[in-house]
Amino acid sequence: MASDPELGRRSRLIRSLLPLREMLPGSFVQRHRRCGRPNCRCADGERLHAEAILSVLVDGKPKTFHIPAGLAEQVRNQVERHKRFRQIADEVLRLNLGRFLRQKEKQKEKR
Fold this sequence. Notes:
This protein is α+β, with helices and mostly antiparallel strands. It contains two helices and three strands; from the N terminus they run H-E-E-E-H. It has one domain.
């Protein structure tokens, strides 16, 4: 069964998870807002401030965390890695289910 192409695909997918160690759950959100200072450039509503936010569930409740500008790209990448991790995990589980169902059929045929 070592030559099974799905087994090889599954192994490659699992190995591809290693670079994904640095992950963050949730959503990366970039929005523009006014700061509230009357003399600021954003007061006219035209030139708003960019703000990066991490939105995540903590203990089952939605929470948002401000992301400092210097960390925004890193956090965006970590959230994207988590999405990729979930996609790969879903694919591995699909392959595992297929293998299980084929094994089950082989057991049934032996009887």
